[in-house]
Write a sequence for this structure.
DNA sequence: ATTACTATGTTGCGAGTAT
DNA sequence: TATACTCGCAACATAGTAA
């Protein structure tokens, strides 16, 4: 292939862009790229043969510009990487888990409820749906969403931490993923809130596969 | 460095994104990338050692996901290429040349003038300013601009070809670069039109260096 | 079927040096 | 100074095959 020419092609393009001519020397480029002068000399000759660059040798240096072939290689790689980074995961898959009851407890606090209403736009049903998910998939899914911070508070009996929420849709119903402060990073269960009791409304059972969308 | 792992990293990321796990086999990947099974096997092991991927070997295949190091490499390359492709040359430098008179001739045709007014937004002064420029710089400059096509027409005496125009600013005055149809590709002189006589308005003389902006 | 070892090609790198 | 040879060595790729 031609993988070994890519870095040098990027170097040239970064120096003077895709269309201008770079006046330099093999030793100068070699120094900056931390390889030998001989390697740069050989690579540039090879790249010229491959139609990646145009090259003109003068007594005291080189004139290098990127040829159509080189631009094509750069663009191909750019588009591939753009595809990778611009792709945002729109659906998260998980399996319904038996709730452990804690969600119901803190969900009922009016200090949280008021913020759910004002920041998420709905009165949350007092309880959470637990969804077992793949940790890395969650990262990809959440990374494209805007976090909504629900502030914590303290009562005379205990302290309630802040919550990070992400608005989602569950079978068309607007809800949110709720991640309590200081959740273990290895956590593989997400808690989901919604204005209705999702379990009965959507007839969900433990083990059901559920897809939520952003 | 690690240039030889880049293509494989891109392959994995394209398959399943930056966060999901790819279940495949060394021979399947080798087939698709047109290298040997042994090479893929070795490279994946190396990439795991380098912290580019996470890898799990099972009796009937592999689970591969991209690690933080791999994401860093991909992102670095993405940002470099984005810089190269997103950089739009905003200024084009040239030297005022003596006009050859032809511009003035066709500029006065009302069939062109009507289109200048409707498509470029100004009545063009009947004459062009000739600017000697670097061919490759022109390509970089024009590639980021929207071409405006002025249709050709035929009179009883001759045919007037279509013109490709690019709106620009010359010292703050809105004008356009005009490239006649079938211009020689090696042409190094651009013709510029504007609503005023640029030469007198801007006190330009032959040999003056002029910068036009998009 | 897998992955990955060993042995053997092949290619790339760079020190020395010619031009 | 510059580019670009030659050539010894190291790195990479692959065929065969073990596990």
């Amino acid at each position: 292939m031609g993988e070994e020419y890519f870095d040098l092609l990027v170097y040239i393009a970064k120096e003077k862009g895709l269309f201008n001519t770079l006046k330099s020397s093999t030793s100068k480029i070699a120094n900056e790229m931390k390889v030998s002068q001989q390697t740069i000399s050989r690579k540039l000759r090879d790249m010229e043969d491959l139609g990646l660059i145009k090259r003109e040798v003068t007594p005291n240096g080189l004139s290098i510009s990127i040829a159509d072939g080189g631009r094509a290689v750069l663009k191909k790689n750019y588009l591939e990487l753009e595809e990778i980074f611009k792709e945002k995961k729109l659906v998260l898959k998980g399996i319904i888990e038996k709730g452990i009851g804690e969600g119901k407890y803190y969900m009922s606090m009016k200090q949280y409820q008021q913020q759910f209403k004002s920041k998420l736009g709905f009165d949350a049903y007092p309880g959470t749906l637990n969804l077992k998910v793949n940790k890395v998939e969650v990262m990809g899914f959440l990374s494209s969403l805007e976090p909504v911070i629900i502030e914590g508070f303290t009562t005379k009996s205990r302290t309630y931490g802040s919550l990070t929420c992400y608005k989602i849709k569950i079978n068309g119903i607007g809800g949110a993923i709720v991640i309590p402060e200081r959740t273990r990073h290895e956590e593989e269960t997400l808690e989901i809130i919604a204005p209705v009791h999702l379990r009965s409304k959507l007839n969900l059972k433990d083990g059901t596969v559920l897809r939520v969308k952003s």
Summary: Residues 4, 35-39, 42-43 of chain A lie near DNA strand C (CB under 10 Å from a C1'). The interface with chain B takes residues 1, 3-4, 6-7, 10, 13-14, 17-21, 65, 74-75, 77-78, 80-85, 87, 89, 134, 136-137, 139-140 of chain A (CB under 8 Å). The longest strand of chain A covers residues 163-170. Chain A has a mean pLDDT of 85.
